[in-house]
Amino acid sequence: MAEERGTTERVLTLLSLLQQRQVWTGPELADRLGVTSRTVRRDVERLRALGYPVQACQGVGGGYQLGPGQDLPPLLLDDEEAIATAVSLLAGAGGAVAGATDAALRALTKLDRVLPTRLRHEVRALSGSVESFGGGRTPVDPEVLMTLARACRAEVEAGFGYPSGGQVRQRRVEPYRLVASDRRWYLLAYDLDRDDWRSFRVDRMTDVSARTWRFRPRAAPDAAAYVQEGVASRVYRHQARCLVRASAEVVRAQIPASAAVVHPRGEHCEVVSGADNLDFVLMHMVLLGHDFEVLDPPELRDRCRVLAQRLLAAGAPVLAGGAGREEHDRRTVGRVDDGVG
After folding, report:
1. pTM over 0.85
2. Any domain includes 332
3. Which residue among 10, 196, 217, 327 is buried most deeply as judged by most CB within 10 Å?
4. Can you give the pLDDT at residue 125?
5. Do 52 and 86 have their domain in common?
C-alpha cells in the first residue's frame, strides 16, 4: 500500500515537472525524482495510460514534453502559483476582464474547494491590495461572493440582511445562481418567506452567511434572463414594449444589457424597458435612430403625440414680423461676444 502511494506521488510530481517546463531530458527527470531513467519511462507510460499526451523526442534538444490534448488536464500548482491564480480570478470575477466574470467565479469556486487554509489568508490579503479605476461593476466583498457561490454549489440555505421599505430585513433564501451584469452582481434565489423567486443585489447585502440546512433544488427560471428583465424593467414604475425596425443584433449593440431586454422578431426586434418617467423611454428609443412602434402601454403612445407636437412647435418658423428672429440673433451675438457661444 505504501509502495502504491509512493508511485502515485511520484507520478504526480512528474506531471507537475512536465507542466513547469517545455522539455525535460530523461536524466534530468530521473535526478529530480530520485529514480532511474527506466522508472521515468514507466511513469511516463502511466501518464499516457491516464490520457496525458507525453511526447518523447530523440537526439540533440530532445526529451520529454507534455503536448496539447483533447481535454484540459488537471493542473498541479505550488503555493505561489495557487495564490497568483486565485487573486487573478478574483480580479476577473470583479469585472476587470471583460466577458470573463462568470467563468472566473466558477473557476474560483473550484479552486476554493481545494485551497489549503494556510493560503486563504494570503489570497485575502493580496486581493485587498488590488483596486481599479474608472467605470465598471459596483465593487463587492470577495468573501461575500465566495460565501454565496459555495451556498449555490452545496445547495444549502443562505441568510442576509437586505434593505426594504427603508429598513434592513433578514431574508432566508435557497440560492440558485450568481449573475453578473455590466454594472453589478446579483443573486437569483427562492425567497422562503415570500414563497417566490427574487433577485438581490449583492452589494446591498449585509451579514451574509451560508447555513447547513440543505434543500432540494426547485424548477428555476433562466437565471440571466430573469435578472436582466428585473433590472431593465420590473424594478421601475412603468414598463414599455416597442417594436424596432432593426435587427436584434444591431439594437443589442446599442443598448446596455442592464437598460433593456431585446427579443428578435423576425428581421426586426422587440425592446422591453422600464423607467419611472415614460419620456425617458421615448428619448432613448428616438436616439437609437431606427423607426419604431409603441406596443405597450397605451399612455406611452399618448406621450408620443404630445412630444411630437412639442417638437414640431420648437422647429416652426419664428413669427411676429421677424421680431422673434431678431431677438434670437441678438442673444446669439451676445453669447459669442461674451465668449460663451
Report:
1. no
2. no
3. 10
4. 59
5. no
317 occurs within a structural domain: no
208 φ/ψ angles, rounded to the nearest 5 degrees: -75, 135
| Three-point CA angle 71, 103, 52, nearest 5° | 15
Residue 4, pLDDT above cutoff 80: no
Task: Please compute the mean of the pLDDT values over residues 87-91 and round it to a whole number.
Answer: 67
Confidence of residue 136 (pLDDT cuts 50, 70, 90): low
Tell me how many degrees the CA angle 217-218-223 measures, rounded to the nearest 5: 95
Instruction: Enter the C-alpha cell of residue 71.
Output: 481535454
How many structural domains comprise the chain? 4
Q: Which domain holds residue 89?
A: 79-127
Least confident of 34-43, 118-127, 130-139, 194-203: 130-139
From 139, 146, 229, select the one nearest 185 (Cα to Cα).
Answer: 139
Contact (Cβ atoms closer than 8 angstroms) between residue 266 and residue 288: no
Distances (CA, A) of 315 to 110, 241, 308, 310, 312: 61, 28, 11, 9, 5
pLDDT value, residue 90 = 67
Question: pLDDT value at position 29?
Answer: 92
Residue 152 near residue 178, CB atoms below 8 Å: yes
* Lowest model confidence (mean pLDDT) among 34-38, 50-54, 257-261: 257-261
Residue 176 clears pLDDT 80, i.e. is over it: yes
Comparison of pLDDT for 31 and 340, the residue scoring more: 31
